């Protein structure tokens, strides 16, 4: 999942022969990507036209079959891993063994989109070098870049330069529960890998491609407050105290005043309070009853917060817990941090080193150096589950805008430069360069 960003004023970036410093196999990879551009766009259309909302289990599996048909001819052993235990469709796991001593590369993407079967936004529509459609950028465009790069490596004879494990989850946009079951295969793959490459979308700022070496966490919380109910004329006295809603307001206000620090965002998404208040089982709908002359007995709020490291996550949880514990008179409160969130991917030295290698590829392709993207610009993602075990890069997919909303639009021309970057980078990483 990623936060949409405009790609206005973008154009096709060609390789300048005067600048290019590619080996003969790398030049073949670049030419193959260009030659197969039409094939890549056609594949993207087929993937987009198959609905694969996270809860459309059959649709997610159908997209998995399409990807299998692309990977098996390249020598990958492809397995469909059902995820009924996590109440989701399943994942594609594909492996390919390279030459002895080759590095192990983990490639990450996802089969599902946020657009379910009942969404009015269902079809691929091309307009020149752009196309809109559900998942056109996030993440069906990313899978197309991945496949284009692997096909280019095959054509150049470099596919054996690396050992590959590909994990394409079927529930990145709405992760299964329990999360330790839903992400077990990905986590295990991360422990085996020497580098991880995430094929979610490329970010472009002011016309410049950005490198992504960090993603923030996603942590959900539920706050419940209690007060003594009675006639409103008695509120704030020694017997009845402040009431549940005032206690809820105190805590949320303190969050706003006391929590802010670099790289942290926090949000309250839903609130209810009154004589009675409750959230539904999914935590997305609230009900409440109350009267203006009755002190409210219950308050409830649900929200999230996002951090750049697990240390920051622990610190923020401790701050929130301490704020909640300072009860107003006559009230009680409890905060519960929900299991199953996305961990953080910190901007480590190893991740920076991978971006430096990618910038070496950029230099040899005659492309501009990619500066690190501010992690506040990205949402949470699957690569974070392996971030403690392996160095990684994010954003190997195409550039797009309007992700997660009707009208999601991919810059088709970016597929070519991203596939060239990925193919050459994977070849060099696999060879230990």
Features:
19 strands, elongated, Alpha-Beta Plaits, alpha+beta, Aminopeptidase, four-stranded antiparallel sheet, 433 residues, Bact_exopeptidase_dim_dom, zinc, 31% helix
Task: Characterise the protein shown here.
The chain is an alpha+beta fold. It folds into 2 domains: 24-215 and 345-430, Aminopeptidase (3-Layer(aba) Sandwich); 219-337, Alpha-Beta Plaits (2-Layer Sandwich). 31% of the residues lie in helices and 22% in strands. The chain has 10 helices and 19 strands. A 6-stranded mixed sheet has the order 1-2-6-3-7-17, sandwiched between helices. A 4-stranded antiparallel sheet has the order 4-5-19-18. The chain has a 4-stranded antiparallel sheet with strand order 11-14-10-15, covered by helices on one side. A hairpin with a 6-residue loop joins strand 12 and strand 13 (286-289). The longest helix is centred in the last third of the chain and has 18 residues, at 413-430. It is elongated and about 85 Å long.
Q: Helix and strand layout, with pairings?
A:
Layout: H1 24-35, H2 37-49, H3 57-71, E1 77-82, E2 90-96, E3 104-110, E4 125-127, E5 130-132, H4 140-156, E6 163-169, H5 179-182, H6 184-192, E7 195-198, E8 203-205, E9 208-211, E10 219-227, H7 244-258, E11 265-274, E12 276-279, E13 286-289, E14 298-306, H8 310-325, E15 331-337, H9 349-365, E16 371-372, E17 392-393, E18 400-401, E19 409-411, H10 413-430
Parallel strand pairs: 3-6, 3-7, 7-17, 9-16
Antiparallel strand pairs: 1-2, 2-6, 4-5, 5-19, 8-9, 10-14, 10-15, 11-14, 12-13, 18-19
Organism: Sphingomonas aliaeris
InterPro entries: ArgE/DapE_CS, Bact_exopeptidase_dim_dom, Peptidase_M20, Peptidase_M20_dimer, Peptidase_M20A
Domain Peptidase M20 dimerisation: 213-330
